[in-house]
Specification:
With about 190 residues, the protein is mainly alpha-helical. It has helices at about 1-10, 15-25, 45-65, 75-85, 90-100, 100-115, 140-155, 160-180; strands at about 90, 120-125, 125-135. Among the domains are: about 1-30, no CATH class; about 60-155, Orthogonal Bundle (Arc Repressor Mutant, subunit A), CATH 1.10.10.
């Protein structure tokens, strides 16, 4: 039976990945994700991946250049962004939110602490855990990061209505949430 299924998938041009995704979807085939539409141009089935990759690279480059005068790389900005948005947090929370290795977060935290932008203190509820929070010295950094993000957003969303930006943001949040539980993504 398995040979027939693979043969059918291969002959239909769909490959067996869509079937695997459908069968692996929570709730079975009826709740499966929508497969990308068949494309007239070869390779266009990868356009979403290409576009997301391009956006990610360009956003990272923009963020690094905009904060180079402060000596802050992207990993440091990620930790600052999390703490500015969520307040006191542990390293595991930051690693989980951004899908970053805990060891990489630990190195980044040391750099930020040395720069006087964060402090770490033992969690009174869990003595094995340290909680991080921004220092007052980080206030100007956060303001710079917000200005840089606003500039980047103006370029990125140029020609889009506020409703289109809101729908895009919602759709990307949904995609990110779908992928956050991917196998092998435990960090």
């Amino acid at each position: 039976m398995q040979g027939k299924t693979q043969g059918k998938a291969a002959s239909s041009g769909q490959g067996d990945l869509r079937g695997k995704a459908r069968d692996a979807a929570p709730g079975g085939p009826e709740t499966a994700a929508v497969a990308p539409p068949a494309s007239a141009a070869p390779g266009e089935e990868f356009s979403f991946m290409r576009d997301v990759s391009l956006i990610t690279r360009r956003m990272r480059i923009y963020a690094e250049r905009s904060m180079a005068h402060r000596g802050l790389g992207f990993p440091e900005q990620v930790v600052i962004m999390h703490l500015a948005a969520h307040g006191r947090s542990n390293q595991e929370q930051v690693a989980r939110q951004f899908g970053i290795d805990k060891g990489a977060i630990a190195k980044t935290v040391v750099k930020l602490e040395e720069k006087g932008l964060i402090t770490r203190a033992v969690n009174p509820q869990n003595k094995r855990e340290k909680l991080m929070e921004l220092t007052p010295a980080a206030d100007d950094v956060v303001a710079d990061m917000k200005r840089a993000l606003a500039g980047m957003a103006a370029t990125m969303f140029s020609g889009m209505s506020p409703d289109e930006v809101a729908r895009l943001t919602q759709a990307l949040s949904h995609v990110a949430a779908n992928l956050s539980g991917e196998e092998g993504d435990e960090r």
